[in-house]
Specification:
By secondary structure, this protein is of the alpha+beta class. It folds into 3 domains: 60 residues, no CATH class; 127 residues, Sandwich (Jelly Rolls); 74 residues, Phage tail protein beta-alpha-beta fold, CATH 3.55.50. It has 7 helices and 18 strands. Helix 1 crosses helix 2. The protein is elongated, with a radius of gyration of 40 Å.
Length: 302
C-alpha cells in the first residue's frame, strides 16, 4: 500500500494494526499527527462539511480561487530592462572610441589629433577626445596644462572643469589646475568662458582666474615657456610654484610658511638643484633634500 492510501485510511480512522505499523514508519507520520492534535483546538466553521480525505481533496482541487496578478509591474520591468540595455550599449559604444592620453610627473608629450592639430601636454596632464567623429565634433576634455596649435576648420572646443575655450584656428595655452585657470593666446582669437565671465582674447592676451579672482593681462612670449623646459611666473602665490616643481621633478615639497607670498621668476626643468635655488633664494628661503624625493623648504633664520 502506498503512503497516500495509508494517510487516507489514517484520516478516516480505518487503519488495521499492520497498516498502523506501516503508517508509523512514514517519514511524515509524526508531523501529520501533530497537525491533527493541533486541529482539536480549532472550531470548525458551520460552512465546512468534510466527510473524509477523498472528499476534502476533491473539494479543494475543485476550487478556482482567482489570483490577482500585479500587471502594473510588467510595463515597469520592461521599461527598466530597455533603459539598462540602452545605457550598456551606449557606454560600450561611446567609450570604445574615446582616446585618452595622460602624462606623468616630469613628463611632457605631444600628440597629433585627427585633423592634424597638435597638442603638447605638460606634466601630470590628461586629455580625452572622440576620434570616431572628430571631423564633425572637435571637442577635447582637458585636465592639467596643454599648448594647442589648432588647424583651421570647424569650431574647436577645449573643455575643462573651470571653463570652456572655443576657437577656429589658433595657438593658445590652457592651464587647468586646482583653483588656477589660465588661458594665453599666441595666435588668432580665442573665446574663453568660465562661469559668467566671457572674453575674446587676441594675440598676447591672457585670461586668469586664481583662487576665485579674475584678471586679464598681456604676454610678449611667442609660446609657453614650459614647452622650452622652463616654468615662468608673474606674481603667482608660492604654493603654485611649489606645486609646479613637484610636477616637473616628481618630488614632494614640505613647507611651513606663508604659501600666498607672491613669486615672480622661473626655474628650469632639467636640474633640480638649480630649480630649487632659483625659487628659494629670491624669497629668502632655504631647503633641505631629506630623501630622494622629499624636499623641505623653510625661511632663512636671520
Amino acid at each position: 500500500m502506498n503512503s497516500e492510501d495509508l494517510v487516507k485510511k489514517w484520516l478516516n480512522n480505518e487503519l488495521s494494526e499492520e497498516e498502523k505499523q506501516l503508517f508509523n514508519k512514514l517519514d511524515d507520520a509524526q508531523y501529520n499527527e501533530q497537525i491533527i492534535e493541533s486541529a482539536k483546538y480549532f472550531r470548525a466553521s458551520n460552512f465546512s462539511n468534510i466527510d473524509d480525505f477523498k472528499s476534502f481533496k476533491t473539494n479543494y482541487n475543485g476550487q478556482n480561487i482567482p489570483v490577482r496578478k500585479l500587471y502594473w509591474l510588467n510595463p515597469l520591468l520592461k521599461i527598466a530592462s530597455i533603459v539598462i540595455i540602452a545605457l550598456g550599449v551606449y557606454f560600450t559604444f561611446f567609450f570604445n572610441h574615446l582616446t585618452q592620453v595622460q602624462t606623468f610627473a616630469s613628463e611632457k608629450q605631444s600628440i597629433e589629433l585627427p585633423d592634424h592639430s597638435l597638442v603638447t601636454l605638460n606634466a601630470l596632464t590628461q586629455v580625452k577626445f572622440d576620434k570616431r567623429n572628430w571631423q564633425d565634433n572637435r571637442k577635447l576634455k582637458l585636465n592639467g596644462e596643454a599648448y594647442f596649435k589648432v588647424t583651421k576648420g570647424k569650431t574647436f572646443d577645449v573643455i575643462t572643469d573651470q571653463g570652456v575655450i572655443t576657437v577656429v584656428g589658433t595657438q593658445f595655452n590652457v592651464k587647468d589646475r586646482y583653483q588656477y585657470f589660465e588661458v594665453k593666446c599666441f595666435e588668432g582669437i580665442v573665446k574663453v568662458t568660465s562661469d559668467t565671465i566671457t572674453r575674446f582674447l587676441k594675440v598676447g592676451d591672457t585670461y586668469q582666474i586664481l583662487n576665485g579672482k579674475f584678471t586679464q593681462g598681456k604676454t610678449v612670449a611667442q609660446a609657453p615657456k614650459w614647452t622650452e623646459n622652463r616654468s615662468v611666473f608673474d606674481a603667482i602665490p608660492i604654493k603654485e610654484v611649489f606645486a609646479e616643481l613637484e610636477r616637473q621633478y616628481n618630488i614632494e615639497i614640505s613647507y611651513n610658511l606663508d604659501s600666498n607670498r607672491l613669486f615672480t621668476g622661473g626655474f628650469v626643468h632639467d636640474n633640480l638643484e638649480n630649480a630649487l635655488i632659483a625659487v628659494t633664494h629670491p624669497m629668502n628661503l632655504t631647503y633641505v633634500r631629506s630623501s630622494s624625493n622629499l624636499v623641505v623648504i623653510h625661511e632663512k633664520k636671520n
